[in-house]
């Protein structure tokens, strides 16, 4: 059984008496340590790990800790706050993400909700409120402050309406699935797609399976044909499908690049 499968099994069997396994994601080590110490005294919460937002080993640490819930400081995520939340949703589909932040912008709460965050907790909240939200998140129950909730619900409702109005075969795909399919149209291998999107090859495999299911086809080649017939075109610098892979130094099929006179460049 994989770590991701185990997430699903534990999520399906959680109840109010099961301690919530919590992972803390925040750039401030002192805050993580202090919060872990406080939460260790709270009933029904077990802090299993923590990491900085930009820790290169974040996903690996989280996968090894097998949390039910993760708190994330969205204010530390840089220019694209929803990117990390989206990656967590892709890598750990049964993980409940709670935004624990000192940011107050409603549009940021909308971004978080669209990226899959189940709850939003201001950092000036009481520890009792945080514990209550964590317990609810562990049961799959969402919590957003009233000041943000109306706009969050409107944005999600608008997304549902737009999805209902779509009719083309590619319109059934999520944004990330379209990115994967576009890379397939470009003739890229699964490992290349994973590297470009900064996800695991297993995640690309999952996206590919979903693409085939949504398009009603049985192979990647058929999916590419549907994509091309629907107007998706290879990028200008894409290699034809089946041609040799170009390496990082510009050579093809592992052969070194040679100069005009046949000599290797210095």
From TrEMBL:
Gene3D superfamilies: 3.40.50.2300. One of its GO terms (molecular function) is DNA binding. One of its GO terms (biological process) is regulation of DNA-templated transcription. Residues 166-231 form the HTH luxR-type domain. Residues 231-266 are annotated as: Disordered. Residues 21-138 form the Response regulatory domain. Signal peptide: none annotated. The keyword DNA-binding applies. Keywords: DNA-binding, Phosphoprotein, Transcription, Transcription regulation. PROSITE patterns: HTH_LUXR_2 (PS50043), RESPONSE_REGULATORY (PS50110). It comes from the Bacteria. This is LuxR family two component transcriptional regulator.
